[in-house]
């Protein structure tokens, strides 16, 4: 779950032997808020945050308590709802457990935590005041972990301040629906408390008080990539899409190759990529992160966890987790940036529900790469940049995990792309190809022949109805993508 409005749904899957078995599915409302706007959007989410929760008043011990009481929530989820995002997580035992059993006591928690010295420790009442008592207009969104609220605290301390002043933060609450939320909460602190990078969201602090578990992050003003790609009327410009891809790749490269201990992110998707005011991208939600293999180990064996449409096929089938599992997920997000389509979308015609499977014919044949480009861009994209991105996505999505590139290779391949200026809308060749998407016939001056038939040796012939320009394919001038690491001594 990110720190911005989004719906996140949980699906359980265990892996046994060489076969994955489907478990209990827990999902949110399939409407996902795409058609809901304004105040109703926030109240709708807020209702779902509170409607299934029981509010319990209890005294809060210790000095500095602002109100003398705290809120305890017990959240339940309906299993008969559907959604686009369906993360796969292990199921806690079906036996009924109390909150005290699901969330260990504070002393035990302190032993499990690897607290970084720079993290601030907040009290529950400090965060309650910072978010204005978790009121509806402070709500940013919710997910499997819990609800996220906007708040304001002192720049250099924990004191709540007036809205619009001090440091703006996002406060993530933990639901009490089971042990998995507690484990994700621990993972968030243990990873983000130690990992510092410009392309990872900053964890500012945390709260452990009675059974309350909250996390405090930097506020990402532009929300998630998911919202900008799929829920906004105006499309993201091409250069910004490439910038976001590069930033996200740098974040994953740091986790895989630069961190003191390699980390596999395991839930790379558009809803977990957050954007600041300048569209700099940062990875959020480390609840499913896992230490990578070290030494002579080739993989980590674990339950299958992730999101349908993004998880690597070999990981889903075997439970063997490697850094190349993240690379596959990155390839899916590249496709989403290219096409403007969701990884899984059952509202599309048959054969187009799964983005990767629909796109494979166009990935494998470079002459048809333009069919993958988001039509909302209306040709405002770099031809060379799009061609290279398609090539890169094809490598990331290889069915053979061993030949997928490392994230450092991907970073090097993406670095020049945001600045390319060869816009397709100024290319007569691309315009001709675009007009031929539906086998549009030429006018009477071509004798009624289709555009696709007007080729010679695989190259389009100049038509009297076209201006006198160069008609060679632009992708013929693009060298094949080679690994920069392969040439190193």
From TrEMBL:
E.C. no: 2.7.11.1
Family matches, as CDD domains: STKc_IRAK
Domain Protein kinase: 134-420
UniProt main location, coarse: membrane
A UniProt-annotated Pfam family: PK_Tyr_Ser-Thr
InterPro entries recorded: Kinase-like_dom_sf (IPR011009), Plant_Ser_Thr_Prot_Kinase (IPR050823), Prot_kinase_dom (IPR000719), Protein_kinase_ATP_BS (IPR017441), Ser-Thr/Tyr_kinase_cat_dom (IPR001245), Ser/Thr_kinase_AS (IPR008271)
Protein keywords: ATP-binding, Cell membrane, Kinase, Membrane, Nucleotide-binding, Plant defense, Serine/threonine-protein kinase, Transferase
GO molecular function: ATP binding; protein serine/threonine kinase activity
Biased segments, Polar residues type: 71-81, 444-466
Feature: compositional bias, Low complexity: 58-70, 87-98
Recorded superkingdom: Eukaryota
Listed PROSITE patterns: PROTEIN_KINASE_ATP (PS00107), PROTEIN_KINASE_DOM (PS50011), PROTEIN_KINASE_ST (PS00108)
List of residues binding ATP: 172
GO cellular component, one term: plasma membrane
Region: Disordered, residue numbers: 57-106, 444-489
EC top class named in words: transferase
GO biological process terms held by the UniProt record: defense response
Compartments (UniProt record): Cell membrane
Family of this protein: Belongs to the protein kinase superfamily.
Protein name per the record: non-specific serine/threonine protein kinase
